[in-house]
Every structure is written in C-alpha cells, then in structure tokens.
Design a protein that fits this description.
- Helix 7 runs antiparallel to helix 8.
- It is built from 20 helices and 15 strands.
- The two termini are 32 Å apart.
- The longest helix is centred in the C-terminal third of the chain and has 24 residues.
- An 11-stranded mixed β-sheet has the order 3-5-4-8-10-9-14-15-13-11-12, sandwiched between helices. Strands 1-2 form a two-stranded parallel ribbon.
- It is α/β, with parallel strands linked by helices and 650 residues long.
- The N terminus is likely disordered.
- The relative contact order is 0.10.
Amino acid sequence: MRNSKMQIMSVLLAGGLLLPVAGFSGERAVAAPVSTEWSEFMELNWAPSEWTVETERHKSISTEQFAELINLAAKEAGAERLITEITHSDQIKREVAALLLDEIIDVPYVEEMLYQDIPINSPYASSIGVITTAGVMKGIAEHTYGYGKPLTKGDAAVVALRVYQYLQPVSVVEASISDLQKAMTSGRVTSAELVDMYLERIEKYDVQGPKLNSIISLNEQADELAKELDAERGKSGSRGALHGIPVILKDNFDTADMPTTGGSLALKESVPLDDAYQVEKLKEAGAIILAKSNLHEFAFGYTTVSSVSGQTLNPYNVSKVPGGSSGGTGASIAASFAAAGMGSDTGGSIRVPSSFNNLVGIRPTIGLSSRDGIMPLALTQDTGGPIARTVADAAAILDATVGYDPDDVTTAASVDRIPESYLHYLDPAGLNGARIGIVREVFGSDPDINDVMDEAIQDMKDQGAVLIDHVEIPNFKQINSYASLSGWEFKFQFNDYLESLGEERAYEDLAAIIESGLYDESVKTQLIERNNRESLEDESYKDIVLHRTQLAQDAVLKMMADYDLDALIFPTSANPISKIGDEQTIGDGFKLSSFTGYPTITVPAGFRASDNMPVGLDFIGRPFSEPTLIKLAYSYEQNTQHRTAPVLTP
C-alpha cells in the first residue's frame, strides 16, 4: 500500500514518466498533445461509440458518465476494483475525478506534488497525488493541476485509456528501462516481480525452448536485493534511472559475490576479492546484477564458445553464432532476459554481438569508463560498456558507469569531459544538419549488407544529414598491416589479474591454467602462443603501441577535420553472420575504434534479404564525443525503428 507521506522520486528518461496530459490550453504543457491517445482510444474495441464522436470531445460530462467509462476500462483490463462511491454532479471537476480514480488505483508511495493551484488542506490532495504518481491524470501544465476545471469527454476518454493500460499486466519483453522505471514508480510492478519475470524467461528460453545457452550463472541474491530496493523506494524514493533494474554482466566483469569465469573451467569457482569498478557503480545506482553471461573463452573470438558453458546460440536463428566475445550478453538482452547488459570490447566484442543480435552497443572512449576488475585481453585496446535494446537504455547505463577511477589511470582523461547526463542528447532531430562521412573502404563485398547500408544512408539524408561519400582513410594500408595487441599483452596483464584474486587463487599464472587443461580445445593454441611471449620490451610490440596508435588516431582525426564531420559510418561487420561451427570474420572497420581508442556506437540498421539476419551500423567519432554519437544514433533509431524482437523468444 502507498505511504501517506508525499515523497520526491521520479527519474525521467526520454519519453518516460511524464505521461501526456489530457488536453487543456494555457500554461506550458508538460508532454505531448492528446490527439495520439484520443486516436488510440477510438481504436479500442470496447470504446463506447458515443465516446468516440470527434465533435463531442469538448463537451462536459457528469460524474456518473465518468465513473461508468472508467469502470468499463477497469473491467476490460481484468481488474476487480471498481468505482463505487459516486456523488451526482452534472459536471465532474478534475479533483473529483482524482478522488474517484483513487478507488481503483494504488501506488507504493506518492510523489511530491509541485502544483501551485491546489488549496491548502484540500480534501482531494492525497488522491491527486496518487493519480499523478500513477500517471493516469497529471496536471494541465508543469505547476498547474487544473483544480476546479471540468473534465471534457475527450479528457475522460484519454484517462480511460490510461487506466486500461495501467491495469494491464506488465511485460518485460522489449521493455525499456524507462518503461520499467515508470511501471515501478506508478506501482504497477515491483523490482522483485521484475526479477522473477526475467528468471522465468531465462528458464523458458535459455535452459529450455530454443536453449540459447547465454547464461553462465544466476545471482542467488537477486530476489532479496530487489526486495530491499523496493523497500528503499517506498521509504526514501528512487536512487535514479537504474533503481531496481535487472542487468546482465559478461562473465569477465569481477563480482565479489559471484564467480567470474572468463568462460573457462579453470576459473569456474573463482570469486574475486571485490567488484569491478563499473559493477560497483551499477550497484550504487540501484541496478541488480541478475546473471553472468557466456563469452568466447577469455574473450578470444567472435563466436561465443567456452569450456564452462559451451556454444551460445543466436536468438534470431539458432543455427547462427551470436557474435563475440560478448555474445552471451547480446543473445540474452535480445531475448529480454534483463533490461540491459554489459560487455567488453578489445577488437569488436561489444559492437559485433550488438550487430548480430539487433541491439545497441556503446564502445566508450578509452579513459571514459574504468577497466579495473574486467578480465584483461589487451589493455591498450580494452574497454567495457553497455549492450541494450535502445539507445536510451544504453545511455542510461553509460551514465552510471563512467567516471574517474584512481585504479585505472586512463580515466583521468575523462575529468571535466563527462556531461551531466547522456540522456540529454536523445534528440529525434539529431541528424538534421549533421555531417557524416561514409568509409567505403571497410564496407566489404556482401551485397545484402551493402543494400542495408545504402538504405541507412538514404534514411539519414531524409532526416537532413549531409553524407559525404568515399571518405578515405589516410595510411589505411599501413594501419591495417598491424596486428591486434591481444597476442602481446594478454599473458602479462592476465597474470596481473590472477594475482589480484589473492593468495587463495586456484592458479598462479597463465602457464598453470594451460597445464590444467581446463579450457576449450579451440583456444589452446592461442593460450600457448600468448604464454610464449617473454617480454613487452620487444621492438615489434613498441612499434605497434607507438606507431599504429598514432597513425590510426591521426587518420580518423584528419578525415573528420578535412570534411568537417561529426561522425564516420560503416557496417559493424562487413561479412554475414556465420553458422555454428564456422569461422566468423567481420572485416576491418572495427580497427578504426580499437586501434584509436575512440568511441563507437552500434545501432540496428535492418536485416539481410537472403537470411533475414540483423545488420548493424557503426557511428565513430572523436575522443569523448559520446554525446554527439548518442544524438546521431538516437535520431537514426527513432526515425527507422529497425529493432525487432526475435520470434523464437516471444
């Protein structure tokens, strides 16, 4: 039941908790016009014909008429509670409507009201607080409730639609973070119930059904943590956008209360001494670590196969790979096993699974987010970031996980370069006037992927963007000749990671793990080759670190400066998604970000005509240009709507 004390809460994500206001004129409106909702109401099969006459929208109604319509909406939604205490009035006022709605609407706590037109000691104040918090009927403007004003027939129809929607069972399928936050704020669902719903989906589709095999382990404390966060919400309000939101971590993010395996049987029981920095930040924001996801063992490849959990399948076609190395996160978020997830990226491991699972992925600028506590592959290229179903969700996760960490000196570069919130850059018109370079050199030869890209380019032009074609990469042949640093750095940085596990760790170093044989046979050669590296003092290694990085950074910055660009674009993978058991290659586009450390956002761009598998589009920009990239990606996403849920996990 709700608290009687008025409390401030409400984290407002884009399109979030401020629901459209029933149509009144006057002071600045707090949301979109009512016409869309009026149209939705008219399309309901239960909407009474006398309520759908356009010419009567502005007529006043009686208390009885209002109660009758709301009770019909409640019954159609399957609710048992109805409005019963009705006092006759030929013209129902907004505050009286709130009192009646309070009979069937309940919220766990009531937000503080900022309305300035409610009389002191009004007997209706409590009910206005309830229905405002629920989002069923908010004020007519930001600080004005409309006290004493009558409801019109059109207003009542919209309120009935909202009551019907409010009383519907909450579904987590494709639900955004803002959707879930709104549902928890309004009392429609609790965090504990969300945890249960996600766990049911994991059991149904990961363990059974198509058996995606995306999850390595579940957090046994998730339900209890959710209940604690629900209690905190009721007592003191929400911590922010992620309060009570379940997320999934790639199982190379350290968790002090769960094993961190890296996908290897050798580390199946390895519990780190503390949380990774980004995990700590997620928990501080109120997120719930629901599960740890499968990855390509030690993050070595693009197909997501490991000795600890086996092969993860793509939810769009279980005969295809989910991408890698964060393929478990990609498959699980595509299948709505959590609201969002975390991946790590050295050579495409956030971007590729995002592309292959029709998701949004953000590889942040190296130095924006700490790598402390993420099992390393090559720290010169490593970073960690969000994988989500929408740009807004990815931005919300990014907000919580960025910042200076003294245990990762690269993050000192982020000081004074982080905006108040990345959510402020969710601009549907963000492409208008933007200058974007097309890097054809990394497109590849697949006709289906290139067709998707051509359509994406036209869509951007239609939104007012200026596209500059065939932007050339200076010194690309030389840049492309350099190898990834994972073959050099892994042994030394991984041994440091093992040491961080403490004296009770099962293995002293990489050599001991190789000797154990507790890893997938497919990574044996890579492990041995990396372990044979004797030193990082080799001139070949230094040449890569010094010259490759500088060449790649200069190339990207020069391209963007020469053409006055806001971003560069290319397909995330120039090659199609491979079948299980086949090798997966993705082309050379990933190197522009991996070799520079510059940010990239991957967004869904459509599907290949020949196999109906997802295609991703990369936006890359200057260092710390995440706000610009988010603006562009969000605008493209909102104007194309290519995100489609997999039919195998309804």
